[in-house]
Amino acid sequence: MDSLILFYVGIIIIIGLLFGKLAKALKLPNVTGYLLGGLIFGPVIGMFGWKIVPIETIEKMDIVKQVALGFIAFTIGTEFKISYFKRVGAQPIIIATFESLFAIFAVLFVLLIIPLIFPVEINPRFAIVLSAIAAATAPAATLMVIKQYRAKGEVTENLMSVVALDDATAIIFFGLMVAIANAFVKSDINIGFAIAKPFIEIFGSLLIGFIAGYLISLLLRWYTGRSNRISVIVAFVFIVTSMSVIIKNWFGSIEISTLLACMMMGAVFTNRAPTDDYQVIMELVDRFTPPIFILFFTLSGFELNLKVLTQVGLIGVIYIVFRVVGKVAGSYLGAVISKSSKKVKKYLGWSLIPQAGVAIGLTVVADTIIPEYAPQIKAIILSATLIYELVGPFVTKLSLKKAGEIVQEA
User: Looking at the whole model, is its pTM more than 0.90?
Assistant: First the structure.
């Protein structure tokens, strides 16, 4: 079976390419086509007993997804130029904080008042933990839309920064909400450590990314050939991506965010590299990564589970709808407070719909906190992921187009 993995990798990439072309013809983002291709050739035909790619083979390709996320995060990190933050100030940080908080509290508020209106029982701890996951946003699909349509402008700049910061805000707020949830019951869990843990993990992720980015900038002064330079970038993305597993093996409960670490690595690199070198290297990365990204999103489509939609129920609908309400409202308020332009106020929030990796990862943590509700939480988040990942890229494209930042469709 292992010898056939490369065969299936090729098949998956071809499926992604074909459906990307179809999506383009329908004026949809390519990423939507990749996801739909995986969905149709995976779960949909699987309902009829057909299998293009065996499930066990897809599971063995998890490392490909990790590497793809590493490159996506690195690319987003390269947008964090000091000159940019000197120009815009704390604007992205304020917006990211408010849209994350509003997503959490919009879901939590509705979950807590629903039992007063309908004959439904909702455990407060369950409501707190589920709503805490609402802050997370998926940067991968957003980045792909921006790159495909070469979107440029104020909304795009803020969007790149906000989705990057979302990973940190989601982890912090989830940790704080979990500490609150644990306060409802007598437990052996150390509340102080529960509060400190997300900050430790974020600091550790940023430290690893900083060191890696600094080392890249040093090595690129020695290696001036294009092939050597892309090799340095690839090597460090591989190393940093694997650090989450290494740290977990060393420290047990402490986990490192690959997204945050690779973002920091990209940020340090972009601020230390000479301008000419930076442009050349990023062009090399852009040429190297498309097959990895196509494989990543098509694989994500293969892994989507249609059966979870039947388990979502009223609570799932509340989560799916009011997370978006919170994101849009919070983004608008954050933009008002930070004195952003009218375009940012109006369109940024609608570009924050996609949700995937970080949210699914947080469901694993939720399993250790309220195991009795873990199956329900996982079903809700997976259903939301399915809907958000299919609808989100199209809404992001529409928002950027209405903002006037997609001049000509790719």
Answer: no
